[in-house]
Amino acid sequence: xxxxxxxxxxxxxxxxxxxxxxxxxxxxxxxxxxxxxxxxxxxxxxxxxxxxxxxxxxxxxxxxxxxxxxxxxxxxxxxxxxxxxxxxxxxxxxxxxxxxxxxxxxxxxxxxxxxxxxxxxxxxxxxxxxxxxxxxxxxxxxxx
Length: 144
Description:
The chain has 144 residues and is of the alpha+beta class. It is built from four helices and four strands. The protein has helices at 56-69, 83-94, 99-106, 110-119, and strands at 3-11, 15-23, 29-38, 44-51. Strand 3 (29-38) and strand 4 form a beta hairpin. Helix 3 (99-106) packs across helix 4.
């Protein structure tokens, strides 16, 4: 069985990346990356990769080298949620607006909003009003 130690969500225009730090039964750590590609008509495709930490340094070196080769203008593409949108989501949540309403306002899922708040260290709490408990008065019966 695996235990998730930490989760990070990266959002981009057409895909999201869920990066988990996992702990196995043998107390070994590894990284799982799940990419969800958002297609038209709310259809999504998911792929997953697990990375052993022993090769992580080499993978980072290769990715850094590839980054230097890719033209700079490709890095300026619009993200799935802009940084301004993320800040606005945080502000609205902290003002007491429900996650469901925020998700509707930004046309995204409630899970995405929850993950964004979690990544920023904001605890998720219920903002529903507690139900009022009605007590019935008991009448004492007169003793005869």
